[in-house]
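[Meeting: bench + compute handoff]

Bench side (C.D.) handed over the final construct sequence. Compute side (W.E.) agreed to return the predicted structure before the next meeting so the bench team could plan truncations. Sequence as handed over:
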Amino acid sequence: MPSNFTQIYFHHIWSTWDRQPMLIPEVREAAYKTIRSECQSLKCDVIRIGGISNHIHLLATLNPTISLSDFVKQVKGSSSHFINHEIQPDFLFKWQGSYGALTASRGDIDRLCEYIDRQEEHHRQKSLIPDWEAI
């Protein structure tokens, strides 16, 4: 094999501070945009991002040159910094310190994308998959 090949998928879940409903639509969209940008700078591909007012689900590849904890720290840190300084400077936005990260196989991708896309519906109908709402 002439070059390295990796295929590392993680399903990340993290919440707002005290699970407060801080992710109003304009904040949520700004957070998603910033998360996508930070992932790109870390050479990680966003496959899907979604959530509701108090948490986010991110399905992404992980570049093998960065640790999982450093990846999450960078993504959460850059998004909260952007929200606090550019979107809502008069309002303190914070992510919860903890996070969930689950490995995913290539065969899980379509099902996870559908689950992430339908977050509002899953929470409204309480049709959640407990392992995928780990945090």
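W.E. noted at the follow-up: The chain is about 40% helix and 20% strand. C.D. will use this when planning the next construct.
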